[in-house]
Amino acid sequence: MKNLISIQNIIKSFKNLKAVDNLSLEIKEGEIYGLLGSNGAGKSTTLNILLGFLTPDSGTALINGVDTTDNSDEARKQIGYIPENVSLYPYLTGVENLDYFCKLNDKNHSPEKLEGFLDKCGLDSEFHNMRTEMYSKGMRQKVGIAIALAKEASVYLLDEPASGLDPLASNELSALLRKLASNGAGILMASHDIFRIRETCNRIGIIKNGELLKEMDTSDVSTNELENIYIEFMKN
Amino acid sequence: MKSYIRVTQTELIHLLRSPFKTTSILLFVIAIIFGSQNGYQLFKTHNKQIISISNKNTNSIEDMLLTYEGIENGTLEKPRRDPTIPYWAIWNVPSHAFKYPSPMMTFSLGQSEQYGYYKRVTNWSTTYDSDLAEEIANPERLAIGTLDFNFVFTYLSPILIIILLFNIGGLEKDLKFDNLIYSSKITKEGWILARFLFYYFFIITLIFILTIPYALLAGVFENHTVQYVNFLLLLLLYMILWFTIFYFINLTGKGSSDQALKMISIWMLLCIIIPGTIHQITSLKYPTNYMTDHLDVSRELSNNIFNLPEEDIKKSLLKEYPFLQNTQHASDTIMNVATINRSVSGLINSLNKNVSISIEFSSKKKNKFIKSFSKMNPVTTFQNEMNAIAETDFYAYRDYRTRIQDMIDKKIELILEDTWNNITVDKNRYAEYLKNFK
Amino acid sequence: MINIIINEWKNLIRDRLFFYSTIFFVLSLSLVVWMGILQQENQQQSQSDAQNHVRKQWENLEAMNPHRAAHYGSFAFKPLNILNAMDGGINDITGNVLQLEGHVQNEVIYSEASQALSISKFGKLKSSLILQYVIPLFLIILSYGSISKEKESQRIKLLILQGASIDKLVNAKSISIWIYGLFLLVVTVTIQSILGSTNPEIFKRLAFILLSYGLYYFIITSLSTYLSATLKDKTSALSSILAIWILWTIFLPKIWGNAVEKVHVLPDRKTFKEDMRAERNQGIDGHNPYDKRREELKNKYLAEYQVDSLLQLPINFDGIVMQADEEYGNLVWDKHFGSNYSIMQKQKSLYQFSGLLNPFASLQSASMGFCGTDMIHHLDFLKKAEDYRRVLIKALNDKHAYGGSKTGDWKWTVDSEFFKSVQGFTYETPRISNHLSRYLIDLLFLFCWALLIKVLIRVNAVKVNVL
User: Fold this and answer.
1) Do C137 and B268 count as a contact with CB atoms less than 8 A apart?
2) B83 and B67 in contact (C-beta within 8 Å)?
3) What is the domain count for chain C?
4) DSSP-assigned letter for residue B152
5) Do chain C and chain B touch with ≥3 beta carbon pairs under 8 Å?
6) Which end of chain C is flanked by fewer CB atoms within 10 Å, N or C?
7) How close A222 gets to chain C, by Cα (Å)?
8) Residue C449: phi, psi to the nearest 5?
9) In angstroms, rounded to a whole number, what is the distance separating the alpha carbons of residues A104 and C2?
10) pLDDT tens digits, residue range A165-219?
11) Alpha-carbon gap: C130 to the closest alpha carbon of chain A (Å)
12) What was the ipTM of the complex prediction?
């Protein structure tokens, strides 16, 4: 199985602060990788490098073999992204927001298909045609997920995707991600939510001060064990 | 109280660490200096021109006195315009009406660019002659206007205030720590007021200091100290107006951008829209006067007088100038046509005076209408007050026209009296005439 | 890009404040245009009444000597072009009455500004005031946060990921707001056409007005959106664009205007009059029978008609002298007034060059020019009035010389039939095609600015930090 996401020896500093320190990881097709770390660990910086919004000081980041620095436009075409805070146009409805973002991607879905995406993400149909200024954070998050889904990308990058979601919605998200992975997508999920990472991901990497400290298969650890390992690494 | 003082002291740090604000202050200072310089330049130009004309007049007086000497001792032939005849003697009395510029003009050019400031007065002059029109200038430049102190202060100081004040309370709201401030001992109103007061005193002090050099240069403190003090008080009041408006905006503001937009909108309303609206309404109610009454006097009515028989002209003159009853020609049975011809300007002057009164009356009505909006149009009101202090407003020029009319009347009276008394003008008589127009 | 524009419009239309603001603008513009036309019509009526009044007096002249009629003279009252209702230009500042008489070329006098207290420094509330000052500010308000809000909400990452590049975003957002500016412009021009009189010439001028303002709005919206994209937050963007707006609309026009006067200096009135008088005195003095040049002319005519004295001439020599005096005077006026006009035109050209730094200056110049209320049109009126004066005075002097009277017969008169036969002064605003070349520079600078900002967006879009 080929590597859909490949990070090789990435170093990124901001002034005197090393945000990412010689980071390397590979994510294959059908894999969900959880990048676990506290605030300021380097998770968002890593994601931004993969998204092509930051240029690493050294090292390479590839999306399905495409360098994110040299060919960011091409790389982005293959990425579905779910930010931590999904900001939508308040005067558009959920469907209209989704339609707009799809059209930017040259995807002209029918209204039924668009509503289908929103259903898949767990947004109740009564809210589909309501202006998003009335949405809760969780509802906006679901639209954000739908935007990523509708792109039908091969790689998905998620930044604290379950933040603001209730347990049911979080479970639905995990199920959705697993389904995407089973269809061959490679998924990188950055979070500090140990439980959600354990529930969703196949592999976990613990990151601290920009350094990948440990990688493990989810099947090798329970949630408690994972928590203990994580705290241990964070303390030291 | 101590905390409010501390707030005010900290404001200096806010100011110094904001390149945008410090640059704006610097630009404002440059604009004030540039504006004051323009005002001072025009003040000097006016004075220089007046001195030049006065010197020229002195020279021509000396020439005339020599002419009289030459005629009296027979060394000179009488020229075509015989100066021994009162009419020509008075014609040759150089009498210019000057509107001496006030040194306060340095700070407010006002409407000075709309009017002339020197005029050679003769018995045929009127207060609406073409030489009282504006100095030769590019009309587009006049329409844009000169950047003088008045303009910089009236229109640009509020903008400076906006730049200095727009983020007071707004920045804290943008960065979401405003509640941190308001949850301390200080009140929101007091906190904003303390910061505003810092800028108020800062700007006022800055402007006061900037006016001093030009006030000294122009000689304001010689005779116009009271006007200067009044001017400064006006500046203080004007600043209070804007600070008050902006205070309420900041008190209820939702963030820096919101506050900035409201402030600039208010500026637009008070400086551009309201004055423009009042100007348009005034033009609708009082359209431009094409001065046809005045033109009629200079053409039709003058022509009618010229066509009158001498007897009728004489009767009219005696009626208009009763003092002529006691003159020689009044009691002469023989009509002296030359005397009558040289007196006709007296009748035309009366017609012109009547027309001037009606023109001034319609201007008065128009100005009253404009002033009726003063509460709604504070910017224009302040501007006109500043012009009034600098003697560059409409009324200053109206007073100038009044003085011109007085000079015309004086000339005519002298011509009439001496012509009708068959006076032969010599050097001494000429010197007497000169005293009347010093 | 179309999608982004449509999306922006959806956002705008669904904003209640925007909706009410638009209604407010449309109503205000309608009212302002109507007031402008009403004021125009009132003033035009006054001007027409004044001109007719003066003409009637002329036609009713009975038994007057032609030379005396030359002193009686006439007046030209500056008419208003219908587009004065849109942009008054210099008409409030310049005089409206020009005396046309023998021996003298007068200056135009009696400006509206001299007849009352000062009211507004920026002019009457005509459509140009709103179009030049208010609407650009409103466009700034709409556009200053257009990209900043995407950055602040982090939506921009999503947008870029979906295929919208920064320069596409900036262009599309600025165009969507520009369209709104164009809409208000078209509304104004349409109302002007409906309420005011129209003809092909006015339509042509209105088209150029649309073009000028359209370009300026493009500059404003693009620049504002560009700053929104490149500066760190919307407050910085707003501060910057407002600073630029203030510099362009308030500061620079005055500074440049003052500077231009110092480069090309006009004489003061005293020097101007004295120089003219000095040169004028070199010519024939028609009222001085002892003048030397008069003597020379006399000898010429005596020789031509082979007579010994003026009384023997079959023509009236006084008329000849007056016309010779007039012709010499015309040379002097042409030189001095011509010099002044030439300096003013140089000043205008130099001022127009400020468009390199300040597109607002180009807009104002173009607006006044296309509305027919600028200095070029004013000088055209003065020139045509002076041409008429010369024709009028020549007709009178020719009548005096060849009309049947003899030299020295100052009591000889002509009747009203003659005066009626002398055409009155009429003036038509010149076609814009005659003067278009003078405004091409304004259009060029506006176009260059638009292009410059497009290039800026293109070049700098890649450097925009979306984080």
Assistant:
1) yes
2) yes
3) 1
4) I
5) yes
6) C
7) 35
8) -60, -45
9) 10
10) 888 888 888 888 998 999 899 999 999 889 889 989 999 999 999 999 999 999 8
11) 29
12) 0.90
